[in-house]
Amino acid sequence: MSQSVLDQLLEMGFDKQRAQLAVKKSDGLPDAMDWLEKNQDTDLEELLAEEEAGPSVSKVEGDVVAMSLVCNECNKKFRSQREAEFHANKSGHSDFAESTEEIAPLTAEEKQQRLAELREKVKAKRANQAVVDKEEQKRNEVRFVFWNNLIF
Asked: Where is this region: Disordered (predicted)?
C-alpha cells in the first residue's frame, strides 16, 4: 500500500524525498498529506537528519501492548481513548501516540480528592448559572412590564 501512496503523492507533484518521508511517517494517503502540509516549511536536510536520529513512533511496535495514550504536543498521559478524545476536543491537540507505560490507578484518597474538586466545580457552575438566570429573569420582567404598558 505504501508504494501506491508514494505513487499518488508523486503524481500530485510532491518532491520524491519528502513524499518518501511522508509515507514512512504516516498511515495512508490522508496522513501523508497532513504530514507534508505540517512540514512544508521545514528544510529537507533537517527532516532527513530527524529521520536518521530515529523515527517518532506513534504506535507501539511488535507484541507489546499499549497501556496508555500520550499527547505528543503537551506530553499528558491518558488511561483511555475517551480521555484522549476529550483532551483533543478541549485543547485542539491532534498528535497522540500509544505508550507502554501504565498509568497507576487512583488511590482511594486521590479519588476522594478528585470527587471533591468536581463537586466544587459543579457548585461554582450552578452558582454562576443562578446569577445568570436571575439577571435574565429581571430582563424578562422589564420587557413584560414595558409591553404591558405599551399595549394597555
From this structure: 85-106
